[in-house]
Amino acid sequence: xxxxxxxxxxxxxxxxxxxxxxxxxxxxxxxxxxxxxxGYPKGPLTVLDEVGPAVVRDALAARFAETxxxxxxxxxxLDRIADEGGSFTAGGVGSAxxxxxxxxxxxxGVVGTGTMASGIAQVFAQCGYDVVVVGRGEDKLARVTAYxxxxxxxxxxxxxxxxxxxxEVLGRLSVTTSRADLADVDLVVEAIAEDxxxxxxxxxxxxxxxxxxxxxxxxxxxxxxTELAKATSRSADVIGMHxxxxxxVMKLVEVVTTELTAPxxxxxxxxxxxxVGKVAVSCGDRxxxxxxxxxxxxxxxxxRLAASGADLTAIDADIKEAAGFPMGPFELLDVVGNDVSxxxxxxxxxxxxxxxxxxxxxxxxxxxxxxxxxxxxxxxxDYS
Length: 384
Ligand code: CAA
Known about the structure:
Elements: H1 3-21, H2 27-38, H3 44-51, H4 53-67, H5 76-84, E1 107-111, H6 115-126, E2 130-134, H7 138-157, H8 163-172, E3 173-176, E4 187-190, H9 196-209, E5 215-218, H10 225-230, E6 238-243, E7 252-257, H11 263-275, E8 279-284, H12 291-307, H13 312-323, H14 329-336, H15 338-352, H16 361-368
Helix pairs in contact: 1-3, 1-4, 1-12, 4-5, 6-7, 12-15, 14-15, 15-16
Bound molecules: acetoacetyl-coenzyme A (CAA).
């Protein structure tokens, strides 16, 4: 264990305990979310059990005495388990029955042409579904086809696929600028701009276009799914399917149900998630869901550490080595985009009112300077 690991990872473990003790998600789903959404070798509650609840509690308590920051104050449950010598993960949760498709799902729709939309379309087409992708222009739609083609070519180069499979997958993918072409899909995933007004308009439109019984899913990472449900006359059929970047690789889908979502819709979406080779975790409609609520405060803490003059490359290397995370915090921030990270952090701050969640000043400054990460060739690291 290194100092960087203790400084950045222990508060994240504490935060996972708070989420668990609040009943927002099960221990298994919290651990699965971080494993399959971020590629971590182990989930936070398993790490806690391995490091030792008392070790983590004592280190956090010492830090809390210094900082007075509530994020460092050991969670009540951590305190109790540390005292009792218990475990967070012992016993599991029993064998939950595998979800089954409660709707016929053959033809899928994706709305959007960005990285997430392209990745999601690829996932569905690769798993044998016919997919209709709706975009605002032919040029944007061409980017979706190019994205999928590039990934399939890379798989061929690596000897993991062949030309015949590529042709089949691309053959199942159709693109259109007309939303009306979604009339016969069984489920549509929306992956357009993170703007509630724009998404609300889309859901109103989809409500008019889709056949009765079709499922309307959103891949929003920060907006309330309930608001989108209320924009339609079929709120029971609206659900969140939050994929992770890059969607063809990351195995997690957070399935977000609102108070209005029909249980059968939830079950079908969890079954579909499994059918396309992903792992579903269940969560309620709250900012950050599981992964972002645990990931972004940790990234924000790393940015604060950077502001004190720490060596970013060294922190990245240390975290990869000590925690086994696939990317260091600054490498990941640059992939996600500092603008996206700032928006998520602001949303978390608003939702939880936790002073330690206030976006780090350096993150705000990076966004103001247009240093957004890989997409602008400069973020925390330089890619020029
Ligand atoms: N699209 C499709 N496939 C990709 C890809 C991409 N952009 N990038 C990599 N891959 C594939 C490769 O083809 C390769 O596939 P095979 O194993 O079948 O050959 C596999 O992924 C591994 O790739 P590499 O060996 O080139 O690279 P790597 O080992 O460094 O892995 C990574 C890359 C999978 C992205 C890994 O670094 C990782 O897991 N990073 C963590 C990403 C993460 O935390 N994502 C969550 C961000 S938060 C979020 O998304 C939520 C939000 O709301 C903002």
